[in-house]
Amino acid sequence: MPEDDAAPVGEIFAFFNEVGIIAQLSRALFESRLPDGITVQHFSVLNHLIRVADGRTPLELANAFQVPKTSMTHTLAGLEKRGFVEVGPNPEDGRSKLIWLTPSGRAFRQEAQGLLSEDINRLSEKITADRIAPLLPELTQIRQILDKDRDPKKPSRREQPAHLR
Amino acid sequence: MPEDDAAPVGEIFAFFNEVGIIAQLSRALFESRLPDGITVQHFSVLNHLIRVADGRTPLELANAFQVPKTSMTHTLAGLEKRGFVEVGPNPEDGRSKLIWLTPSGRAFRQEAQGLLSEDINRLSEKITADRIAPLLPELTQIRQILDKDRDPKKPSRREQPAHLR
DNA sequence: CTTGTATAGTACGAAATCGCACTATATAAT
DNA sequence: ATTATATAGTGCGATTTCGTACTATACAAG
């Protein structure tokens, strides 16, 4: 029976606890700024398509955001319904599809970014960049560890880190 | 008008991005260990009731976890349905209720903690405590900033930090 | 070429999340 | 006491999330 790992376990647990609440709060904050039925997930996918490149497959996107592919299907359906993306065939794989941004999708992302930057600017007065800059590499590493750790069934076809400019 | 904060904005955004994905991954990991219909939220609430003290009101719990009170109602209903908590009147306020752990609830939490500690032990080999220890105070501070920042309507009846042993 | 197996995406259903509106109680103002 | 306002909790409905099972295509083995 384990006897001496109370501290580490407690700390790791506390870490996930804080991370969970911060994710919760930031999600709620950003979501309150986005128009009607648009979620953070919608915005994030648009953002990813612009920052990385469009013409991604749904599965690539699901991997990039670490959600089940069924969830991504749903998110993409919402984006398509609103005319922000178009779904085309994948010439290299008949089972697959490619997601393309529409001009409307690009315009919306630009607009939404403006709405969010208001909040981010306000927050950046309190959460200064020099405070979070050192955290980022640590978090990235932890994210990668968690990512590799999960379900060995899925070969973890990793993707661009979903951020990084 | 702001002109030079492009870098901070990007970094803050990247920060929330990482935090969101880590929350996503850790939630999925823990949830996969918990029995059938039990979510991380269920476990967290039980945990909170033990670590802090039971006899909390639903609203206190909602504040502690930063979720809307309607969400907490739902979570508590699930816990009650499974016999893990009991809901009693609040002698100090007729509008309110108090949530009490049942022996079964305490037992289940103990058991579930064992299941999770397996994962945490495995992770702690890669995510060593000395790596995350310095992150914790920073994250806590950011959580508090975000918390104070939100909806000024709600007077932010703050609560015990929902963790801390 | 046929067969077996792996993969991409989706349909469907169950559960979680959460905003809105409502009831009941509390508190303050007069 | 009466009235007005604020607060705790819930019912309800819309949406999101995601596991299971399915279809269609790819690829490998023979």
Write a compact overview of the structure shown.
2 copies of one chain form a homodimer. Chain A is mainly alpha-helical.
Low-confidence stretches of chain A: 1-7, 153-165
Query: What order do the helices and strands of chain A follow?
Result: HHHHEEHHH
The percent range for helix content of chain A is 55-70%
Q: What is the CA–CA distance across the termini of chain A?
A: 46 Å
SSE arrangement:
The structure is a homodimer of 165-residue chains.
Chain A: H1 6-33, H2 40-51, H3 58-65, H4 69-81, E1 85-89, E2 97-101, H5 103-126, H6 129-132, H7 135-149
The structure holds a DNA duplex (30 and 30 nucleotides).
Describe this structure in words.
With 165 residues, chain A is mainly alpha-helical. The first copy, chain A, is 63% helix and 6% strand. Chain A has seven helices and two strands, in the order ααααββααα. Chain A has helices at residues 6-33, 40-51, 58-65, 69-81, 103-126, 129-132, 135-149; strands at residues 85-89, 97-101. The first copy, chain A, has a two-stranded antiparallel sheet with strand order 1-2. In chain A, a hairpin with a 7-residue loop joins strand 1 (85-89) and strand 2 (97-101).
Characteristic key phrases:
homodimer; 165 residues; mainly alpha; 7 helices; 63% helix; 6% strand; disordered N terminus; DNA-binding
